[in-house]
Amino acid sequence: DGSSITKVTEIATGAGQNYIHQCSAPPNNNSLIQVDSDTYALATAGENNKTPVVITFTIPSDGSSITEVTKVATGVGQNACSNKNNNSLIQVDSDTYAWAHQGNAATGSVLTTITINADGTGSKVESLTHDSTGGGSNSLVQVDSDTYALAYTGAGTDGFISTFTIDSSGDIT
Known about the structure:
The protein has strands at residues 31-34, 39-44, 53-58, 67-73, 88-91, 96-102, 109-116, 122-131, 136-142, 147-153, 159-165. By secondary structure, the protein is mainly beta. The radius of gyration is 16 Å and the shape is globular. The protein starts with 30 loop residues before the first strand and ends in an 8-residue tail after the last strand.
């Protein structure tokens, strides 16, 4: 009836590192999506909040366990605890995902594509720095079969909307 919520289990990700809650402020603004019936992908800050990462998990339908499968890093670093990371992760096709995130002051706003296989393993396809001075508050949506719109905060906290073409192989233009 929705009158109560019970926590079944939890997981702290990473060996000795909690990728989800590392800095006291500001928050990392995680983005969690369902890949298939029992596989989930979490876009978050990487170890020591330096390299954004997507972590895949399997969770059975009863929620009794959470098993980490893999981590896919962008290779685009950020300053430790100085950025929010501002993740937005969406599905492009059956195994390709687009991920908008914030890099460091040198990398600004980044759009990365990754593949996630049926077993939860994955790999980076491409990263594109599209704004060298911004990258906060990302919100990525699909416009049509291969066009994506990204709303984000740029320099001076101005708002921007950019469009991108992402093909089924993950190539970004």
